[in-house]
Structures are given as structure tokens and as C-alpha cells.
Amino acid sequence: MTNLTIVFHSRSGNVHQLVERAALTAREAGAEVRVRKAAELPDPMVLDKPAYAALADATAEVPNADLDDLVWADAIMIGTPVHYGLPAPQILNFIDHTGPVAIPGKLMNKAVSAFASGSMPHAGQQAAILALHNAFCHWGAVIVPNGSAAAVLHRPGNGAPYGTGTISRHEATSVTEDNFAAIEYQTLRTLQIAGAIERGLKPEPKITMVSDERLRTFGLDV
């Protein structure tokens, strides 16, 4: 069984809709799934306050993500709204605190994929996903993009090879069926790659990991 952790932040519910469909798809495929939200910040920037409040109520029982959720997972998916072409600050804050598990290599070789929602067709969905890819490189993770070959990506509302991106046009919970189909595909592909890694990845004796002594210089408890 493949363990999948989905970490997300959502503002008007569109990312959360994608998360729910991804989790359902993964469970139907036989995966063990943890859905986790990035912890809220003290003073978040909110435009659609009624939608944000409704989403807070709808996700009140969803636990905040922690580092164990990443270590536990074989596959990780991260969903974010676009904020000035970047992932949401809540997601970046969570990423920024992954050093204690990333530096010792505990996130290496995990299949990791990202998706995003923006207000307009060119609102920065791809830029936000690629920004997350930068962090995944530091983790040593295996980035799972959507590519361009799957039939679902040729539907009118899809097309980005980097990851699923929705266009909200400032409408709450407005994900289209094309985008739902895309996140289903992205989820299955991420699980597929995670399973291949689990079955086929063997230790390479010529690769030496960072020493405990070196890790202690970062203040890490090893």
C-alpha cells in the first residue's frame, strides 16, 4: 500500500475541492491517505472573507500538517492558491520548516507533485507550481509533473504539463469537470511513480549520505 500525504492551503475553496477529489481518487486506488492543511498565519491576506470563513468551518477538523506527515508518506501532493505568482505564504511557511527532515535526507526519493488555483488563465498557476519544484529539488524528491501526453490534459480546461491548475475567476468552489479529471490523473500518476520507486529503488553503495556529525552542526537531533 502506498502512503499519500496531501498538504494544502485554500482561500475560496477551489484548492480544497481539488484536494478532496485527489484524496478520493487515491483511496479508491488503494492508497492510505492523510489530508493536512498548512497552519494559518497570524495575519493572512484575505479578499473573499465570507468564502474564507466558510472554508475554515468546512476544514475545522482537518489537522495541521507536520513533519511526520511528510516522513510517513511515499508520495506527497501539495496544493496552493496563487499569491503574486508564488505559493501561498502558509505553504511557504510550512516548506520553510522542513529542514529538520529534508537535510538528513528523509524526504529523498519520495514522489512529489504540486497543483494550484489562480483567478485568471495567466494568474501564475504554473509559476507557483514551479516555485514549489525548487523546494522539492532541495528535498531530493522525485518531481512528478503532469506531462503533455495524457488524453485528459487535452481537454479545453487543462493543458499545463507542470501540474493541475484551475481558473477561479474569483468564484468560490468553482472547479470544472476538466480540472477534476486532471487532478484524478495527477493523483494516479503520482501514486504510480511512488509505487515504481518503492518496487525498484535499490541502495547505491557509492552514494554516501551526510554524516551525523555534519547534521549536528545544523542543530539537528540525530
TrEMBL record:
One CC-aspect GO term: membrane
PROSITE patterns (UniProt xref): FLAVODOXIN_LIKE
Range of residues in the leader sequence: none
EC number: 1.6.5.2
Record-linked Gene3D superfamilies: 3.40.50.360
GO MF terms, alphabetically ordered: FMN binding; NAD(P)H dehydrogenase (quinone) activity
Sorted UniProt keywords: Oxidoreductase
InterPro entries named in the record: Flavodoxin/NO_synth, Flavoprotein-like_sf, FMN_Rdtase-like_dom
Pfam families xrefs: FMN_red
Residue ranges constituting the Flavodoxin-like domain according to the UniProt record: 4-188
Highest taxon in the source lineage: Bacteria
SUPFAM superfamilies per record: Flavoproteins
Top EC group: oxidoreductase
PANTHER family: FLAVODOXIN-RELATED PROTEIN WRBA-RELATED, FLAVOPROTEIN-LIKE PROTEIN YCP4-RELATED
Protein name in UniProt: NAD(P)H dehydrogenase
Organism: Streptomyces spectabilis
